[in-house]
């Protein structure tokens, strides 16, 4: 004799496959829950992957804090930072700071110098850095592709992979850069009798970096701090545009920013990665919103369970009356149908987990197949910033999805199960 409770045995008996309309509705209910859970897992995993990859890439090339100097008398406009060595010393004294690096940046006109063919032009952003200091706040040195190096001595530069591809540049190629200094000189000599042509500076590509993020790879060019200061007309010994700061815990950036702001005073502004990279905050908000919205898919599937139980209870009214007549309590009757709903829910959730995790594992293979079939790029890197669709399975998310789906399905079954438990056995048998 089976040791299973009477209620569970009866629920399993009722769910035994039969060639009936109720069996079809039950199967549809299981499929509905499965699809709802699978969609939740796929979407939330992709959103978690976006969040994780975005933080990895942004933290690798954008520091946790940025310090700029500004003039409160000029409507808070940023100015160049003088005597930045003293500011670095003050910032480094904070116990949470692990690295500080000076930066000079600005847009330039870059032109290739090919041996054959037409020269190509782009307008990237040049960042002047000190390689040793930069190593404490970013992963630039670790992202140089094989065959190159982070060598910014003399007139050397490193360039992003996407930008190098667009300009057909390789390590060892030479480029011409027209900077703010050249433009100022040309404007100053315009109309003068001794007006002369101002030749651009020539630089050699010594390395190509891959940040793993399209925006960084297509926008930035790195040169030495001294060369960038010369490009933008700054004092080569004492002026920069800003400081980038790395801290131990990026998620305490707001607290550390307040501490540094209090020490540096009102002539400085300290901003966090959350302010400078609002896209990461947007991804987190969108992930939470998608979780709430997509739970409605499970809610719709749960109504299928409600319809199944209502239909089943109407067909089994006589049996319910007989059970109550021979002594079954209302609680036992209710447990029978809740157990039936529990089995349907668990089967649907487990099937949804399997389908969802399988889809996440083969997501990029599916995108490749669709691209070959349709000829359309479903996940363009220039828009989303990643070469592949990221995804991350977070156990907490799976627990929330599984637990939330089970709770919704059981709540959907509560009313018809309660209604069945309140049937009057005399009335139930009279109408049969």
Structure description:
The chain has 432 residues and is of the alpha+beta class. Helix content is 55%, strand content 16%. The chain has 17 helices and 14 strands. The strands form two sheets. Strands 1, 2, 4, 5, 6, 7, 8, 9, 10, 11, 13 and 14 form a twelve-stranded mixed beta sheet that branches. It has a two-stranded antiparallel sheet with strand order 3-12. β1 and β2 form a beta hairpin. α1 packs across α13. The longest helix is centred in the N-terminal third of the chain and has 41 residues. The radius of gyration is 33 Å and the shape is elongated. It starts with 5 loop residues before the first helix and ends with a helix.
What are the key terms here?
432 residues; elongated; two-stranded antiparallel sheet; 17 helices; 12-stranded mixed beta sheet; single chain; alpha+beta
Structure summary:
The protein has 432 residues and is α+β, with helices and mostly antiparallel strands. It is built from 17 helices and 14 strands.
């Amino acid at each position: 004799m089976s040791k299973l409770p009477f209620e569970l045995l009866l629920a399993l008996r009722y769910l035994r496959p039969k060639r009936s309309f109720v069996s079809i509705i039950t199967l549809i209910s299981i499929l509905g829950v499965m699809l709802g859970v699978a969609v939740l897992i796929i979407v939330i995993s992709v959103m978690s992957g976006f969040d994780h990859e975005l933080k990895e890439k942004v933290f690798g090339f954008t520091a946790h804090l940025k310090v700029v100097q500004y003039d409160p008398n000029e409507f808070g406009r940023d100015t160049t930072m003088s005597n930045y060595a003293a500011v670095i010393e003050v910032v480094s004294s904070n116990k949470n700071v692990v690295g500080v690096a000076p930066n000079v940046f600005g847009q330039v006109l870059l032109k290739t110098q090919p041996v054959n063919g037409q020269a190509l032009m782009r307008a990237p952003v040049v960042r002047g850095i000190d390689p040793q200091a930069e190593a404490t706040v970013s992963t630039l040195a670790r992202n140089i592709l094989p065959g190159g190096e982070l060598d910014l001595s003399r007139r050397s530069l490193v360039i992003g992979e996407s930008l190098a591809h667009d300009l057909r540049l390789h390590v060892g190629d030479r480029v011409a850069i027209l900077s703010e200094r050249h433009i100022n000189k040309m404007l100053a000599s315009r109309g003068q009798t001794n007006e002369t042509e101002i030749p651009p500076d020539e630089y050699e590509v010594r390395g190509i970096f891959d940040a793993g993020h399209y925006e960084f790879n297509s926008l930035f060019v790195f040169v030495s701090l001294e060369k960038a200061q010369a490009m933008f007309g700054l004092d080569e010994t004492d002026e920069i545009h800003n400081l980038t700061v790395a801290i131990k815990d990026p998620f305490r950036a707001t607290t550390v920013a307040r501490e540094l702001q209090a020490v540096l005073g009102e002539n400085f502004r300290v901003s966090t990665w959350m302010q400078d990279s609002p896209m990461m905050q947007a991804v987190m908000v969108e992930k939470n919103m998608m979780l709430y919205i997509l739970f409605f898919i499970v809610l719709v599937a749960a109504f299928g369970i409600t319809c199944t139980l209502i239909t089943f209870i109407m067909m089994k009214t006589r049996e319910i009356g007989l059970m109550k007549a021979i002594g079954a309590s209302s609680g036992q009757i209710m447990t029978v149908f809740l157990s039936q709903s529990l089995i349907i829910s668990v089967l649907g959730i487990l099937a949804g987990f399997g389908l969802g995790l399988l889809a996440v594992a083969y997501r990029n293979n599916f995108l490749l197949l669709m691209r070959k079939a349709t000829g359309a790029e479903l996940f363009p890197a220039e828009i989303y910033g990643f070469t592949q669709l990221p995804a991350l399975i977070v156990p907490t998310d799976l627990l929330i999805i599984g637990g939330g789906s089970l709770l919704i399905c059981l709540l959907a079954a509560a009313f018809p199960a309660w209604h069945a438990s309140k049937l009057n056995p005399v009335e139930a048998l009279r109408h049969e």
